[in-house]
Amino acid sequence: MTDTILRDRSGNPVTEDAIAALAGEIRGALIRPGDAAYDSARRIWNTLIDRHPGAILKCRGTADVVAAVNFARSHDILVSVRGGGHNVGGRALCDDGLVIDLSAMCGVHVDVATETVRVQGGATLGDVDRETNLHGFAVPFGVISKTGVAGLTLGGGVGWLVRKYGPSCDNVLEMEVVTADGAVRTANAERHADLYWALRGGGGNFGIVTSFLYRAYPLSTVLGGLLVFPREDAGTVLRGYRDFMEAAPEDLTVYAGLVCTPDGAPVTVVVPCWSGADMEEGERAIAPLRRLATPLMEAVQQMPFPAMQSILDGAFPGGTRNYWKSAFVKGLPDAAIDVVVEQGKGMTSPLSSLLVEYYGGAGSRRDSAENAFAQRHTDYNIGFMPQWTDPAEDAAQIAWAKGAWEAMQPFATDHFLLNYLAEDEEEAVRTAFGSNLPRLREIKRKYDPANFFSINQNIRPAA
Ligand SMILES: Cc1cc2nc3c(=O)[nH]c(=O)nc-3n(C[C@H](O)[C@H](O)[C@H](O)COP(=O)(O)OP(=O)(O)OC[C@H]3O[C@@H](n4cnc5c(N)ncnc54)[C@H](O)[C@@H]3O)c2cc1C
């Protein structure tokens, strides 16, 4: 049992009459503390986050979202917005307030003629892949199929196609948005162009996106998978990986990292994804990666793109405790690789990973002010990602991530990937927006002057 109830921002209970009026207006479910569905509805991917909302509205459509926004605004209730529930900092949830949950809004419609895909705001990458692959298309997203398209896209979005087609936000043509005043707006290059600019990289600050229109690319099959090397060869493999990436074609995105096998053995892993049309060319392109050291296992093969975009799902299963720190490192010098190798020795949980990701390509050729996504010229992102199950380990695991990140600071730039930020990184949030922050604050003032949408990577409205 819980004594949580829905309260306004001053802590006053919201009346039952008001809640009943909302319940009568919506098509989706209003889940409250004490309801059988409450605990599962407030659970997100990262179980380190344990919040108790006053109510959760599982929206069935845009009209439910509008009803929720108007209800929360008129009763001065704190809101959070849930898409795929994958934000590691738990920004889908709030305490005592209202969670506007879009996870039931996961429709996807592929328009073959225009090579576009309309996606509702609660869909996951897997939802989109399933429909697009049917028609031989793909949209650039991330690497784990259960991640929400909304949070990922609004924060930029990097994944297996980032080098070829740029971040996800560069591939959004239009969005339907419910803004803080309850209005339903269409944001594209012609209509509400400032909102369109801000939403593409500005996070969940400007409204609730009920649908995205993405550009889709003809792509069914990729050449990808896992190359597994001994952990003792980590330094050699990572140096070889860095040298390889300097000349790698943009059809090839490759991540590398230190992980453990399912039976707990520490290894070094290299994960390539070739998205070019010619698979023989892909084999030739990938060949040097197979020789970075003597592999323990080679599992690179042609596969449907949805299989590639779920190949790491098992390593990030959800229901575990997680805390992330990340740092961009320019050029990845040998000394930085030494830090990666050394810090890898301190990973005590076999579920943890230390990943090195390179995004340079199509996105980096565009200007940082083209849309709100500012982290275009940043080279290697190093992610320190402890993952564990025992709450007694919380302090030690978080301390490892922070310590490893500190050790990387001599090589780190002052850039941050918005999507990877934990909940306690306020300063990094501001830095992540880079030179776009002043314009974002102006647009925030125009569309959300009272900071109604505050449980996110928050941008304060300009004064
Ligand atoms: C296992 C794992 C793998 C990941 N892999 C990648 C990756 O490959 N590439 C990458 O770029 N990122 C990746 N991420 C980070 C991820 O993109 C962000 O955490 C993102 O916020 C998740 O989106 P979501 O919809 O699942 O989040 P949620 O937790 O549901 O929401 C997070 C925030 O997004 C906003 N939001 C969500 N839905 C909407 C909406 N419809 N309208 C407006 N705002 C909304 C809100 O501000 C909310 O606070 C990964 C995260 C995890 C846990």
Give an account of the 3D structure.
The protein is of the alpha+beta class and 463 residues long. It has 3 domains: 16-101, Uridine Diphospho-n-acetylenolpyruvylglucosamine Reductase, domain 2 (2-Layer Sandwich), CATH 3.30.43.10; 108-218 and 434-447, Uridine Diphospho-n-acetylenolpyruvylglucosamine Reductase, domain 3 (2-Layer Sandwich), CATH 3.30.465; 221-426, Vanillyl-alcohol Oxidase, Chain A, domain 3. It is 28% helix and 23% strand. It has 14 helices and 20 strands. The chain has helices at residues 16-25, 38-41, 62-74, 125-134, 149-154, 162-165, 193-199, 234-247, 279-290, 305-308, 334-344, 394-408, 426-432, 437-447, and strands at 29-31, 55-58, 79-82, 98-101, 108-111, 116-120, 137-138, 172-178, 184-188, 208-215, 217-218, 221-230, 252-260, 266-274, 297-304, 321-322, 325-329, 353-358, 380-385, 387-388. Strands 15-12-14-13-18-19-17 form a 7-stranded antiparallel sheet. Strands 5-6-10-8-9 form a 5-stranded antiparallel sheet. Strands 1-2-4-3 form a 4-stranded mixed sheet, with helices on one face. Helix 8 (234-247) crosses helix 11 and helix 11 packs antiparallel against helix 12 (394-408). The site of flavin-adenine dinucleotide has 36 residues, from strand 3, helix 5 and strand 10.
